[in-house]
Amino acid sequence: MTSTTSDMNVNIGLEAEAMALLISLNKDLHSPNLSLQIQSIVRFTDLITEFPLPIIANSALLKLADVFKSCNNNFVRYWIVSVFEQVRGELLKVLNKDALVEKIADVLESNDPIARSLALRLLGQMAEILSDRIDLHHHIEKNLLTCIEGYERESCVVAIEQICSTSKSFASQILPQLEILINDIKTPPQAKLLLIKVLRHMHSDVKTVKKAFHLCTNDLLKNYPSTPFVLVILDTISQLAQNSVFIVKDTFLFLFDILKIDGRKRVKLTCLNNISKLSKLLSDTYTFDFPFDSLYNFLNQSPFESIKLNVLKLLASLSYSAFNVRKWFKYKQLTNTDNNLKIVHLVEHVLFHYNVQFVDLALEILINVIRYTDESFIEIQPLILNINNAICLSIHKRISLRNDLVYIKKLCEYIVRFIKAYPKNEDITKTIIKIMEQQSTNLSDSSNTYLIQCLVYLSKCLYKYSIYCPSIINQNVQKLTKIIISLCNVNNSNHNNNNIFINNLNNNHTQLYSKDELITQLCGTILRTISILKQNKLDDSIIELLYTNQNYWCLYCIAKEALFYRHFYLAESILSNLIKYVESETSLFWLQSLYNWSKAENLLMTANNNNNSIEEEQSRNVSMSSNNLFIKQENLEESLQYFDQSIIQLKASGISNCGFQLLCLRMRKKYVEYILNLILLLNNYQQQPLSTTTTNNMMDTKSDSDNNNYHSSSILYQNSFNQFIDLSEKYNDMINSFFDHLNPTILKSSSFVCRILSKAISTIFIPHPLRNQKLHDTNFTHLLNNNNQDLKDPLLIQCNFILQQLQKFENNSKNNNLQNKIMIHFIIQSLNRIGFSVPSFYFTTVPNTILKLEMEINNQNILLNYNKPITSILGQGLVFKFSGYITYKKLLKRRVKAVCITIEQVNLSTTTATTAVATMNRKEQRFMIPVIENSFQKRCLCHFESEGRYQLVIKTQMIDQNDCYIWWNNNYQIQNYEMLNIREEDKKHVHLFVDVKPFQVTTTRLPLQH
Length: 1010
Description:
Elements: H1 2-29, H2 34-50, H3 54-70, H4 74-86, H5 97-105, H6 113-125, H7 134-146, H8 150-164, H9 168-183, H10 189-198, H11 206-223, H12 227-243, H13 248-261, H14 265-281, H15 292-301, H16 305-318, H17 322-335, H18 339-350, H19 356-371, H20 380-401, H21 405-421, H22 427-440, H23 449-465, H24 470-475, H25 477-488, H26 496-503, H27 514-533, H28 540-548, H29 552-564, H30 568-578, H31 585-605, H32 614-618, H33 633-653, H34 659-684, H35 695-701, H36 704-737, H37 745-765, H38 773-776, H39 780-787, H40 794-811, H41 817-834, E1 849-857, E2 860-861, E3 870-873, E4 878-888, E5 896-907, H42 915-920, E6 922-930, E7 935-942, E8 948-960, E9 965-966, E10 990-997
Parallel strand pairs: 3-10
Antiparallel strand pairs: 1-2, 1-4, 4-7, 5-6, 5-8, 8-9, 8-10
Helix pairs in contact: 1-2, 1-3, 2-3, 2-4, 3-4, 3-5, 4-6, 6-8, 7-8, 7-9, 8-10, 9-10, 9-11, 10-12, 11-12, 12-14, 13-14, 14-16, 15-16, 15-18, 16-19, 17-18, 18-19, 19-20, 19-21, 20-21, 20-22, 21-23, 22-23, 22-25, 23-27, 25-27, 25-28, 26-29, 27-29, 29-30, 30-31, 31-33, 33-34, 34-36, ...
């Protein structure tokens, strides 16, 4: 009820302000001074957009329509048309649509062709409200047939095109007249081209579509064979087919026929481009049999390189369909012809073409062929060999020719896709490493910039595909180490990165220096391989050499890679020394926070030095001492202390926008706390019967006190089960709230680990009648496949193994209490030994989705760090105007739908030091502002109930299309916090102080009458 009342008050205040502005603009709207009149008309755009109320839009647009009808100056009419173009989205809010349309339509009866032309342009802008006005449809149709001037005819065609896009009836009605005008000899050629383009909107029904298609393919193409007409007709047919599936097959056949028959180069290129566009839009290209024979002939015999290039683009588009790829190999057996198979062989020859664009398209086609073809097929092995040779040759060629770096980047993308499809290949890796060995000793940062950047792209390529062939990378670890050492020995004449590291570590806009990036990528490749295979380690001489050369920034980046791939011992050793080389206090606390986190994770990984598997420990004699088998409680407690220190130091760093970082640390700390609680619970009930498989026997043989103890322990285990379930849900909430990050696989893995632990607790300790059967029977295989596509992740491999062991455990009825205890301890140990990856976006404090907010109060611009009190009158309140825009730094699938503005006010005059009273005096107003085309704007009224000094806390939150709140972000921050009422979590919000004063009544004394 309160929010409804506040919205009504806001609307009343906006209407009053808008009406005042409308009255002031109306004074100059009929002014004899032309400049004042134009100025008043232009300001109507601001009036309608700033006050998006139906009554304002209705009044303002009707006044403009009156001027458009009554004035005799076409210059004034032109500016009115421009206003309608800018506020086209507000036309649907007009209440008196008929009156508005009739005033514009009256100008169509004018004798002035310019006035009629402007009226037609204006009616075109009003197409959405003219879809059902049959009278106006006839009027425009009549005007099309009778107009003489070229500009009037052009305006009429534009209006017809706009109305046809919204009105199905008008599109089918105007088609015969369009056909008459196009075939009329008196119609100028340029007008005919415009009229043909209108036919792309004739997709209202099947009859109209087929009639328009027949008109273009049979009549127009024969009557107008010149190149401009043919090109427009082909584009029109293609756009018509994109909107109607009924003529797609006929359009394909028609375009291929023109491609064969017509010998003009431009026509062939247009046909190929339109075929490519249609093939990309079709989700089922198997419904049409593409004439691969013709494509083979064009690719083999055409004298034009541009046509061959477009044929390759079409084949590249078709190669993403597994049906087409299999058809190329099976077509020979079906039709006794081998033209389709010859396409693959012909594209193989293109692999060694001198043009780089041809080579890239050939690689794209053939890599898709490998993806969708079985390796046992006879033709595939020589194809793989040719692709391998072509890639190795292209690497040498593109580096030596010093072409554009874009081609190097594209080649690296194709290499990754090829290795993913065929991970057994070793030659490409050897070629890349050989090139790096040859060039690493000759690098100079000042002379060979292009070469260094090429090697950086190749190192990124190694880094990306190392996940698919870790054993091949592992065989070359020594060579990679030698390359890194030789790169470290190269003199670095530019120390910008080290200066950045020393002065401001968290400058997220800085880019790595190219040689440092090359070293970092190679070290990351080695660390990634080690984390998968659990073999080798990063050579200590690399770290020592980097310290000797004072390359601190590169060391920091290697530490980040170590944290990401769970090498916490390496991160701990690097960070412990890097702390000495920073000058900024912010950077010091940030590094200390990372250092303590790495120590905490390292303690968890080494909580028990026993590395035996679960099966080995369960096969041991259960009567043996179990002191060396279980997790050390002291390590867990010490790890929690380091997590506390890490959180405190992260807060002390003062880094802005670190909400995700703090939440990530707190969630990890909760995970360790829940494990410690479980261990303590196991120790407290170690004498109690823990087996869930002997429940019935125990109930028969034990006394009532033992039964009570058993049920109490089961309830405690049920609470532990619920804790891990809640933690898993919180991780899922983090994924929804912090959707700014493109690939939150680590958060998904953490959520999955919590589910695994809850499953283990439920299976081992909770009797079947007390279980939450719905959560216990979760489809973990489905979660395992969906949570992470990286099947070589050690954590997911371990989770899969644990699920198998739990299944065996549940089916075994001979488990005793000690075996149960050993089982849960080793499940926890196996997960802790792998460790928790620190997300790569943990080090990014600048989000990809940024909200820029501007604010006005009572039509005055106010800075968001404004500390001086603002004066307000009781009963009038403050009118806030919030505006801004959303920027996306990366291509994100989820978009911002609305911005939520929350104004929290506290009356400081009545607030005491007690927290309870301060909470009672808080009042919130919430406003939802829709985001349209990445921008938002709204006027809001903030009212006060009594006089005194108020503190306003303005919070902003973004909301995505799934109605999930996104973590708030603000580009401004208040520096002065003298008021005690500002809570710790509010320090990044906008704070204002308002002095609300009573309304001063002033009276004028009337003169005495004598």
